[in-house]
């Protein structure tokens, strides 16, 4: 059979087109990891341009543009790292998809920052340094710049390593390090630093203990009852009303107090009233939802899914209202110092500064958040809706208790401590039931070390990585901030 004279050219053309397609596919695969950093870089550039437009003191435009750019960088990192503590348990329990969690968190974080973030922020990060010790406003500006850069870099490194760290402690460490470099050790309020150091232990232990206590309550009062559905109809509305009451008080303290003064008695009254109203509404809803359910644990988990989603959304709103200052606080301090020529304990936050913080947190969550969400939600220990609900509830209760005692706790440490608490309680409970079963049937058999390690419900490698990151956060950011301040002040001042 004769070959068509056009066969060879067409075959060559098809081969060339196939090669081009493969090159294009390879190029897209190579470029994919660069998409998120590219979008983040574009946002930082836009933040700097916004600062140049809205800030009128032309002589200091360069400093303001740089501060806004690094403020946007810090906000991106808060979204990538800190928000995972609110949404991780809900995603790990399969109550929310990753996409749903990111959308809800982005909306609630932005709403919390813009609606309840307040118009005043502390410029010295909870009295860590004494502004009077600064030689001049210019020294104060470079100290705040160094604190902003060092804390952002540290949170970025922690996110890359898969360790959820406290952005509040990162900023505190940055301010302390820059303050020491600028004015010596005497500039630091060491009593405040001692309280913060104590919170490294208090936050996770208290959060873990409360989460474990609620899980024990659910097991004893619902899961181990012969009629689980009847027990759930009694206790789930009570637990939901506790959640609503606690979050109402939490939001009153952390969000509403930025708008109008709210004391602890007023917040607790608001929480009690909303809790009672929630119980009246929830009880018939749970009764209707539980009709026809099988009398087994899997059915009970469904009843906790909606409260868990609600708690995650409320935590995100409160986080946006409270922690946006970590991103924009130093930036607002720099803007105030350059505009007025002096520094103050508190300053007004310009709207464009607050918008940078809110959008940056949302972009950071969308672009880089899934890694830490998976870490908190599923890689430390296995969560279901009931366990995740205990973690979310413990976070709000712990903040309420700590606020009443005047303890500076970290929401990151509380939430992750709650995950650890649930996991370690399950380990203890499993070992206890195993011993009881064996003692009732036969003598306890020796279990090899390797087998006991395999049965652990909390991954020890993640536990050690996270705890190590917590311990070194303040020293690391302090050292980095001091170094950055010396470079900035020595070269640019």
Write structural notes for this entry.
With 493 residues, the protein is mostly helical. It has one domain. Helices cover 79% and strands 1% of the residues. The protein is built from 15 helices and two strands. The protein has helices at 7-54, 61-81, 84-92, 98-116, 137-161, 167-183, 190-223, 228-254, 264-289, 297-340, 351-379, 385-405, 411-441, 449-454, 460-491, and strands spanning 120-122, 346-348. The chain has a two-stranded antiparallel sheet. The longest helix is centred in the N-terminal third of the chain and has 48 residues, at 7-54. The chain is globular, with a radius of gyration of 26 Å. InterPro entries: Phos_transporter. The chain crosses the membrane at residues 34-55, 62-80, 139-158, 194-218, 230-253, 259-281, 302-321, 349-368, 388-405, 411-428, 463-492.
The assigned structural class equals: mainly alpha
Largest sheet geometry = 2 strands, antiparallel
In round numbers, the mean pLDDT is 79
Number of strands: 2
Rg result: 26 Å
Instruction: Sum up the overall morphology in one term.
Output: globular
How many domain regions? Answer: 1
**With helices defined by DSSP (H or I, 4 residues minimum), what is the helix count?**
15
- Percent range for helical residues? over 70%
Give the uncertain stretches in residue-range form: 27-31
Order of secondary-structure elements: HHHHEHHHHHHEHHHHH
Percent of residues in beta strands?
Answer: under 5%
Distance between the termini: 85 Å
**Widest beta sheet: strand line-up:** 1-2
Organism: Sulfitobacter sabulilitoris
Protein name: Phosphate transporter
Subcellular location: Membrane
Membrane topology: Multi-pass membrane protein
């Amino acid at each position: 059979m004769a070959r068509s004279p056009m066969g060879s050219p067409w075959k060559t053309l098809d081969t060339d087109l196939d090669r081009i397609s493969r090159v294009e596919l390879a190029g897209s695969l190579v470029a994919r990891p660069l998409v998120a950093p590219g979008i983040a870089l574009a946002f930082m550039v836009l933040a700097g341009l916004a600062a140049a437009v809205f800030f009128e003191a032309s002589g200091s435009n360069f400093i303001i543009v740089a501060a806004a750019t690094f403020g946007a960088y810090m906000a991106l990192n808060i979204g990538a790292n800190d928000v995972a503590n609110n949404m991780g348990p809900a995603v790990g329990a399969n109550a929310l998809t990753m996409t749903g969690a990111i959308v809800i968190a982005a909306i609630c974080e932005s709403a919390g920052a813009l609606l309840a973030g307040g118009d005043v922020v502390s410029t010295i990060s909870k009295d860590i340094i004494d502004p009077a010790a600064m030689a001049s406003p210019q020294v104060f500006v470079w100290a705040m710049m160094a604190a902003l850069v060092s804390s952002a870099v540290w949170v970025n490194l922690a996110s890359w390593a898969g360790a959820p760290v406290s952005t509040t402690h990162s900023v505190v460490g940055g301010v302390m390090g820059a303050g020491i470099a600028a004015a010596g050790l005497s500039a630091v309020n060491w009593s405040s630093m001692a309280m913060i150091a104590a919170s490294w232990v208090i936050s996770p232990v208290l959060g873990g203990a409360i989460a474990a206590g609620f899980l024990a309550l659910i097991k004893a009062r619902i899961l181990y009852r012969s009629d689980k559905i009847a027990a759930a109809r009694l206790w789930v509305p009570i637990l939901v009303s506790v959640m609503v009451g606690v979050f109402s008080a939490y939001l009153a303290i952390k969000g509403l107090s930025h708008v109008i003064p709210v004391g602890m008695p007023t917040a607790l009254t608001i929480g009690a009233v909303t809790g009672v109203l929630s119980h009246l509404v929830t009880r018939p809803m749970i009764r209707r939802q539980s009709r026809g359910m099988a009398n087994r644990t899997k059915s009970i988990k469904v009843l906790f899914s909606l409260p868990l989603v609600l708690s995650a959304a409320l935590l995100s709103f409160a986080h946006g209202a409270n922690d946006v200052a970590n991103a924009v606080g130093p930036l607002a301090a720099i803007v105030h110092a350059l505009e007025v020529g002096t520094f103050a304990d508190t300053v007004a936050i310009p709207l464009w500064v607050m918008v940078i913080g809110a959008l940056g947190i949302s972009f950071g969550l969308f672009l880089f958040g899934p890694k830490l969400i998976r870490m908190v939600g599923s890689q430390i220990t296995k969560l279901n809706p009931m366990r995740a609900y205990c973690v979310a509830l413990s976070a709000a209760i712990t903040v309420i208790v700590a606020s009443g005692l005047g303890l500076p706790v970290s929401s990151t440490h509380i939430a992750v401590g709650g995950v650890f608490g649930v996991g370690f309680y399950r380990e203890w409970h499993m070992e206890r039931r195993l011993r009881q079963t064996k003692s009732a049937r036969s003598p306890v058999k020796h279990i090899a070390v390797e087998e006991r390690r395999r049965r652990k419900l909390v991954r020890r490698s993640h536990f050690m990585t996270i705890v190590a990151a917590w311990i070194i956060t303040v020293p690391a950011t302090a050292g980095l901030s001091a170094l950055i301040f010396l470079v900035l002040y020595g070269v640019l001042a």
